[in-house]
TrEMBL record:
Belongs to the THEM4/THEM5 thioesterase family. SUPFAM superfamilies: Thioesterase/thiol ester dehydrase-isomerase. This is Acyl-coenzyme A thioesterase THEM4. Keywords: Apoptosis, Cell membrane, Cell projection, Cytoplasm, Fatty acid metabolism, Hydrolase, Lipid metabolism, Membrane, Transit peptide. One of its GO terms (biological process) is fatty acid metabolic process. Residues 134-206 form the Thioesterase domain. It comes from the Bacteria. It holds the Pfam family 4HBT. It is found in: Cell projection, Ruffle membrane; Cytoplasm; Membrane. It catalyses: dodecanoyl-CoA + H2O = dodecanoate + CoA + H(+); (5Z,8Z,11Z,14Z)-eicosatetraenoyl-CoA + H2O = (5Z,8Z,11Z,14Z)-eicosatetraenoate + CoA + H(+); octanoyl-CoA + H2O = octanoate + CoA + H(+); hexadecanoyl-CoA + H2O = hexadecanoate + CoA + H(+).
Amino acid sequence: MTSRPPFPEVSALSIGGFVRDDTPTPEVDRREAVLASLAGTVRELVDAAIRTTVDDGEVHRIRDDLAGLVDRLRASQLPGPAGVRFNGEMRAWNWGNAVVGAANAIAPPLEVVHDASGCHADVVLGAAYEGPPGLVHGGVSAMLLDHIMGVTASAMRRTTFTGTLTMRYRRGTPLGPLRLEASIAREEGRKVFVVASIADADGVTVEADGIFIEPAGLRIDPQEQTSA
Ligand SMILES: CCCCCCCCCCCCCCCC(=O)SCCNC(=O)CCNC(=O)[C@H](O)C(C)(C)COP(=O)(O)OP(=O)(O)OC[C@H]1O[C@@H](n2cnc3c(N)ncnc32)[C@H](O)[C@@H]1OP(=O)(O)O
C-alpha cells in the first residue's frame, strides 16, 4: 500500500495554473541552483547597465554581445511563463515569480523566512528598484509586501490570492537594506486578514493590510490521503 501526499488531482491543480510535476527534489534543487546562478549575473548586468558611464561605442558593442547571448538562451524555451509546480514531496518551484523567482533577474529575490509570528525577509534593494531619487518605487514596495503577505496567508498549507491590498507610505523607503514583516491578524472562512510592514534602520516606512482569499476551486483538504 502506498500513501500519497495530500494533493488534489492534476486536473484540479491545473485550474489555477498550479501543476503537479514529479521531478525528483534533488533534480529540482540542482536545476534551480543553475538558473539562480544565471539570474544573479543578469541582475548584476541590470545594475551595471543602469549605472554605467562607459562611452556610446562601448555601450553598442556590449548590446551586440548581449543580443548573441539572448539568441543562445532562446535556442530552447518554454512555450510560455514558468508557472508554479509541485512534486509529491511538497517541493514547490516558481522560477519566474516576480518577487522570489530563482530564474527571474527582476526579482530581488526576496528570501522569505517563516517565523513564530508569520514571515519576515531581509532584502537589499539597489538601483533597479528606484522611484523617487534614492528611494524605493512605491509599486515595488507594494509588490514585495503583497508577496510576503500572500506567503504568510498561505502558511505553507493553502493557496490564497490577494483580494484587497491597502498601503500606507509613512515616509520614503531608502534603497539599501530593508526588513519586511508580515503576520495574520485574523481569519474568517476563506478570508485571511494580514498585516505587514517594511522598515529601514530607523523604523517602519510602509505599512500594509490585506485580505487574502482561498479560492473555492483551489481549496486543499490537508487531511485528504489516497491509498493505492
Ligand atoms: C499545496 C499547497 C501549498 C501552497 C503553498 C503555496 C504558497 C504560495 C504563496 C504564494 C504567495 C503569492 C503572493 C502573491 C499573491 C498574488 O499576487 S495573487 C494575484 C493577485 N490577485 C488576483 O489575481 C486575484 C483575482 N481575484 C480572484 O481570483 C477572485 O476574485 C478571488 C479573490 C479569489 C475571490 O474569488 P472567490 O473565491 O470566488 O470569492 P467569493 O466566493 O466571491 O468571495 C469569498 C469571500 O471573499 C470576499 N471577497 C471576494 N473578493 C474580495 C476582494 N477582492 N477583496 C476582499 N474580499 C473579497 C467575499 O466578499 C466573500 O466574503 P464572505 O461573503 O465569505 O464574507
